[in-house]
């Protein structure tokens, strides 16, 4: 049993040291983002360890001060007090970095808030000569002096300042971070109170350790910023890093490497084999380009971030990466996985507004390099920048339209071959903006899907469809039903049936007047979609499969779902009439054998309409019959073409 010289109880302090060391080793072993927030947290841990060790040593040495030079006792006590002061300031500084206060309020804020710590540290440093904080009397030893409580004042100041910051910036900080930082500051406050209540027990460092553990678990756990499967920094880490660089006006470049046809490769080789290859690729990129921070953004895409990379350097990087990816990545089970790649580059000269803008730049650059089928690096240029700026404007226009409920619907006729008349209408979303004018659906629909606005967009279009049915006598117009597109995201909404039924009831219409168009991409989650469709069928809804042949068509999935109709994509139709492919014949015959009604879209002229009718297509749709029209124009058009002979 160790015989301590002083009467102090060191149990809490001694327990703190090994836990603190283990935490620091674990934290150091994992690669950290070089952010101000990470550096602040590392300083907190160092100061707490120094404070704990010097507290124990100074207390022991204060009992035998006569046996050693007084300079040693002064030095240890001063080290403890300064570590105590800096620990309090560094915890506050960490909270400041979390809410980005230094950037928002500038250098005056930084130096102003550091003044209490600087002042009390200076009082500590001059104490051997000025007798401010403590003294080491040659006869009676250690004594506190008049300014001793200044060290506690400094810590209380920073605890209160941290809480004020969190309250002031509460809208800018996630609930998880708020809870963690509030908790750790309250624990520090309790630690100070306990220190005053039990002066002979060293508890301050233990409570500091509890605060550090809370921060670690809620905000600074390195594993939360690493991709679990690929073992490099993840998308959240990329967003955090980019946000800080933009916030502090530090230029940086991004070099992206994406796996071509990633989804197909993953399906063919299996997820485990694919992730093993990505793991090997991530390790290779980390080793080969050690001056870069490597991130995995998902979907087979890596991004390497650097502060100095120029386009000249990119060419050399691209050659090395291309050469390595020419050879397969071998799975531990012996599976050879050859991975084709696309490469993109965003130079440090490209203006970067925020981390979302950088992600969009990367996404659009990957889309562009895939569209061009490039084997070289695609550098983001002015044309792509202009396209991204347009997307930002479209996002704003869509947001305004959704808020104001100003989206419009246009309707396009469907011609029924058997009855020789227009008997149905497809409802299509349209967006008009004061600045941009008419915005095509192929521009705003994908943005709505990516940004999570597609659910609200779908609700508004369905409500306007119900309103049209309610305001018009469909039977008098010769219309049997209307078709409305629903997105894959809507298909996964468990309450979709109830929502649609409530809207239909609000307009006093029957659901059997509506057919829901489901795209092929929604058929991936068979179980969920089948359950959803069965619920909606009970409400009187019928379904048609939209744009068959436009994607990776899976016949097995299609015939297992309760589709009453199928719409053949116009590209398949045009390929047939250009004599490029006879696939259309086989597709029509297949669905006829499954007793599914067939809608052909993209009908451009009478010749196509007549030929498709002879092939047995039930419905035809296209500009030969009419382009999509606003509601009132559509009604006038139907009246004008009542009894019109389309195929003779």
Give a quick summary of the entry.
The chain is α/β, with parallel strands linked by helices and 648 residues long.
Mind explaining what this structure looks like?
It is a single chain. By secondary structure, the chain is an alpha/beta fold. It has three domains: 11-224, Up-down Bundle (Rhopdopsin 7-helix transmembrane proteins); 226-380, Reverse transcriptase/Diguanylate cyclase domain (Alpha-Beta Plaits); 391-638, EAL domain (TIM Barrel, Alpha-Beta Barrel). The chain contains 25 helices and 19 strands. The strands form four sheets. It has an eight-stranded mixed barrel, surrounded by seven helices. Strand 14 (514-519), helix 20 and strand 15 form a beta-alpha-beta unit. Helix 2 runs antiparallel to helix 8 (204-220). The radius of gyration is 34 Å and the shape is elongated. The model has no long low-confidence stretch (mean pLDDT 86).
Number of domains: 3
Shape: elongated
Structural class: alpha/beta
Output the strand order for the largest sheet: 10-11-13-14-15-16-17-18
What is the CATH class designation of the largest domain? Alpha Beta
Sheet with the most strands, sense and barrel status: 8 strands, mixed, barrel
Name given to the CATH homologous superfamily of the largest domain: EAL domain
Unreliable stretches (pLDDT < 50, length at least 5) are none
Helix tally?
25
β-strand percent reads 15-25%
Number of strands: 19
CATH architecture term of the largest domain: Alpha-Beta Barrel
Share of helical residues: 55-70%
Mean pLDDT: 86
* CATH topology label of the largest domain: TIM Barrel
How far the N terminus sits from the C terminus, by CA atoms, comes to 108 Å
Measured on Cα atoms, how large is the radius of gyration? 34 Å
């Amino acid at each position: 049993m160790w015989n301590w010289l002083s009467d102090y109880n060191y149990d809490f302090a001694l327990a703190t040291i090994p836990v603190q060391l283990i935490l620091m080793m674990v934290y150091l072993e994992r690669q950290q983002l070089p952010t101000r927030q990470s550096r602040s947290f590392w300083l907190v841990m160092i100061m707490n360890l120094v404070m704990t060790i010097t507290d124990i040593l100074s207390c022991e040495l204060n009992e035998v001060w006569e046996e050693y030079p007084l300079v040693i006792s002064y030095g240890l006590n001063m080290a403890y007090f300064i570590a105590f002061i800096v620990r309090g300031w560094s915890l506050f500084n960490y909270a400041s970095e979390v809410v980005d206060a230094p950037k928002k309020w500038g250098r005056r804020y930084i130096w102003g808030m550091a003044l209490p710590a600087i002042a009390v540290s200076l009082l500590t440093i001059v104490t051997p000569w000025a007798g401010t904080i403590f003294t080491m009397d040659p006869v009676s030893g250690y004594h506190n002096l008049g300014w001793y409580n200044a060290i506690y004042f400094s810590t209380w100041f920073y605890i209160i300042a941290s809480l004020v910051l969190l309250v002031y910036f509460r809208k800018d900080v996630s609930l998880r971070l708020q809870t963690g930082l509030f908790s750790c500051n309250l624990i520090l406050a309790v630690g100070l109170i306990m220190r005053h209540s039990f002066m002979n027990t060293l508890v301050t460092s233990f409570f500091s350790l509890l605060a550090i553990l809370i921060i670690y678990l809620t905000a600074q756990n390195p594993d939360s910023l690493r991709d679990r499967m690929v073992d490099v920094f993840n998308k959240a880490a990329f967003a955090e890093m980019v946000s800080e660089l933009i916030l502090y006006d530090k230029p940086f470049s991004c070099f992206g490497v994406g796996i071509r046809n990633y989804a197909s490769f993953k399906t063919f080789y299996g997820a485990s084999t694919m992730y093993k290859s990505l793991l090997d690729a991530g390790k290779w990129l980390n080793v080969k380009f050690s001056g870069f921070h490597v991130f995995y953004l998902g979907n087979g895409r890596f991004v390497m971030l650097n502060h100095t990379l120029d386009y000249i350097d990119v060419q050399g990087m691209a050659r090395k990466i291309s050469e390595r990816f020419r050879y397969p990545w071998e799975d531990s089970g012996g599976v050879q996985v050859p991975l084709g790649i696309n490469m993109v580059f965003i130079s440090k000269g490209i203006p970067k507004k925020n981390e979302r803008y950088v992600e969009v730049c990367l996404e659009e650059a990957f889309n562009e390099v895939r569209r061009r089928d490039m084997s070289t690096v695609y550098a983001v240029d002015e044309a792509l920048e202009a396209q991204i700026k347009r997307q930002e404007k479209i996002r704003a226009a869509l947001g305004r339209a959704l808020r104001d409920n100003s989206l419009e619907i246009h309707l396009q006729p469907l011609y029924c071959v058997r009855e020789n008349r227009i008997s149905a209408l497809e409802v299509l979303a349209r967006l008009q903006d004061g600045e941009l004018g008419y915005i095509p659906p192929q521009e705003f629909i994908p943005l709505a899907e990516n940004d999570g606005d597609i659910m609200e967009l779908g609700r508004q279009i369905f409500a306007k469809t119900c309103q049209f049915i309610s305001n018009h006598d469909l039977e008098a117009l010769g219309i049997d039903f209307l078709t409305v597109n629903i997105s894959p995201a809507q298909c996964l909404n468990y309450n979709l049936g109830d929502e649609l039924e409530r809207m239909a009831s609000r307009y006093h219409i029957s659901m059997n007047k509506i057919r829901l168009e489901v795209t092929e991409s929604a058929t991936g989650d068979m179980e969920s979609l089948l359950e959803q469709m069965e619920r909606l069928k009970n409400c009187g809804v019928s379904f048609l499969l939209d744009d068959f042949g436009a994607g990776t068509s899976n016949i097995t999935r299609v015939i297992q779902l309760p589709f009453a109709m199928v719409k053949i994509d116009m590209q398949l139709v045009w390929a047939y009439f250009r004599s490029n492919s006879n696939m259309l014949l086989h597709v029509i015959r297949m669905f006829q054998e499954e007793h599914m009604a067939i809608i052909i879209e993209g009908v451009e002229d009478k010749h196509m309409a007549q030929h498709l009718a002879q092939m047995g297509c039930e419905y035809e749709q296209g500009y030969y019959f009419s382009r999509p029209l606003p509601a009132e124009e559509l009604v006038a058009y139907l009246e004008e073409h009542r009894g019109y002979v389309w195929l003779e």
